[in-house]
Amino acid sequence: VDVVSYLIHRIKSKPAYEIIIATSKREEDTVFEEIAQKEKIKVYRGDYRDVLDRVCGSALLSEADHFVRIFANYPFVDLEKMDALYREHVDGNFDYSYNEHNKGVLWGTGCEVFRTQFILELNRRELNTNQRETFSYFIRQNESQFYVLKKNLCEKRKGYRLCLETEKDLVKGIKKGLLQWYHFENGSKILYIKNIQDAISEM
């Protein structure tokens, strides 16, 4: 199972969420459309250079008032913390909420929640190419202009990386005991988070 499909299967354990893949129109990204078809979920394809517009297109497909954003290289996203962040975000009607920072969840297990109308309004702003690509960072750098929830969960998180940016990230997680292989009788295996809640509580 590829990383994206593994992530989709995990999110499907939370049936309240509709899953939409946001990707570009580049030929090499057609694989994500194929995954979406296989998993029977929606996909939105937009300009490779405009991440913000792709996210907005996905949000419009969902027709939801609020939505969660999870990076494709975050297969170990903490789903329980995601649920909690989403509920607090909706209850408070925040523009933007996030839980991955130096006092939040482990790097690679966090997510973001947006109010749909807010992100559509942000898309209409005259932002430069870099700001449109890293729009979450733009929001955090200008928090005073928006209604933002920065969810704190500890005094200082440890520096473990559970995202799949490099092979080194995986190796470090396994060595620290946060990731563990589960072996099936048929010889296949999967990598899963071990004692993630304990790891967070010890920070």
Question: What value does the average pLDDT take?
Answer: 86
- Total strands: the figure is 8
Separation, N- and C-terminal Cα atoms: 32 Å
User: What composes the largest sheet?
Assistant: 4 strands, mixed
SS content category: alpha/beta
Looking across the biggest beta sheet, what order are the strands in?
Answer: 3-5-4-6
**Percent helix:** 25-40%
Helices, by number, come to 9
Compute the CA-based radius of gyration: 17 Å
| SSE order, one letter for each helix or strand | HEHEHEHEEHHHEHEEH
Task: List segments where confidence is low: pLDDT < 50 over at least 5 consecutive residues.
Answer: 197-203
Strand % is 15-25%
**Approximate shape:** globular
Helices and strands in order:
Elements: H1 3-11, E1 20-24, H2 30-39, E2 42-46, H3 51-62, E3 66-69, H4 79-92, E4 96-98, E5 112-115, H5 116-123, H6 129-133, H7 135-141, E6 148-150, H8 167-175, E7 179-183, E8 189-193, H9 196-201
Parallel strand pairs: 1-2, 4-6
Antiparallel strand pairs: 3-5, 4-5, 7-8
Helix pairs in contact: 3-5
Features:
globular; single chain; alpha/beta; 39% helix; 4-stranded mixed sheet
Q: Your description of this structure?
A:
- The strands form three sheets. Strands 3-5-4-6 form a four-stranded mixed sheet, with helices on both faces. Strands 1-2 form a two-stranded parallel sheet. Strands 7-8 form a two-stranded antiparallel sheet.
- By secondary structure, the protein is an alpha/beta fold.
- The chain is globular.
- Helix 3 runs antiparallel to helix 5.
- 39% of the residues lie in helices and 17% in strands.
- The chain has nine helices and eight strands.
- The C terminus is likely disordered.
- The relative contact order is 0.14.
